[in-house]
Amino acid sequence: AALTRGRRRREMAALGMGLGGRRWVRALRRSPVRVLPPPQEPAEEPRSPVGPPAVERSSAGPGLWYEKAAPGDGRLRKVVTVAKSRSFRDRHGKVLLEGLRLVRDALEAGAVPCSLFFSAAGLLRELPQERLKGASLVKVKFEEIKSWSDLVTPQGVIGIFSKPDPAKMSYPAAQLASSVPMVLICDNIRDPGNLGTVLRSAAGAGCEKVLLTKGCVDPWEPKVLRAGMGAHFRIPIVANLDWESVPSNLPATVQVCVADHKDPGAQAEAEPVSQGAGRPSSASGNPKTPVKSKPRAAPPEHEDGEGMEGGCTPELTTRYYYESWIRAPVAVVVGGETHGLSPGALHLAASTGGKRLVIPMVPGVDSLNSAVAAAIVLFEGRRQLLQRNKHEDKRQKVPVG
Predict the structure, then answer these.
(1) Cα separations (Å) of 166 from 155, 159, 163, 209, 217?
(2) pTM for this entry
């Protein structure tokens, strides 16, 4: 019996240990399981308003994001296309501007940027940042900009803009306050450098607007833009006009004058030297006398003789540019060096009582740069207009009686 009880105790002890072991195992099974969260994905990079995700934040200010262009970025090829193709510019309504000053002038005047390529983020601080928020900003290497640019020393900024609408632009207040009632009409000016310089002279003389007839070079060509030095965004420019639509862009009571470096009287038979060598004179000895112009063939743009009356140009009163010829408002036509003035320009001048403005030159010189001629006549016209306004103000201040 004692042996039996001892065996039972041992069996019960062994059973207790087994139960304890089961409880321990069961306790492990019933312990709470820790739930591990899924691995966190990297936060998404902020996106640029236009284009792929930005990889670098602009230091120019809040709200501006830009990206680095990858090698072979297709958008960069568009820069060259816009620069060289007039048909692309006309079809898509895009223009290319290069350089800090030109891009800044365009932004301040209200031009809409589409894309801006730059070589250093610091360049963005020199531009009106609030006007860049809707554009695609792309940082590229300076070497790439240098390969696109026609400039010897590129500034590292190239922008693609929507072609500006002169009716929607906001021109500088100082420019508008200093303007005079004078309009410039460019006729057959085909050299980009000449046209850019003409536009710069028109802005400097305070013209109200510039009209370009068909046959002129595209004013948004890169060479014209560079020569204009920002004039495109200081004065309204209306391009690609035919002579039938020119009057609708002029004031109702305007007088149209034409600039000419050839004195009709000087082309006649030379007078005796005793009358004064080197002094151009009309056939009657008085440059103010109307001169009958000789028949001339129409230039290539007017092979059908548009605006010609019996193959002859109309009679215009001749004035030297430094004599009194202003009657406000006034429009001045400047022709190209190769083809000169169109018959349409001469007939428009005759219909408004305009004059032929002669810039006398020494004998033997038969050509004058169009940009130089425009500058001479425009600044003289400004001088006469301001002088006339001054005299009128004095008359108004003098008490009557």
Answers:
(1) 27, 19, 10, 9, 18
(2) 0.73
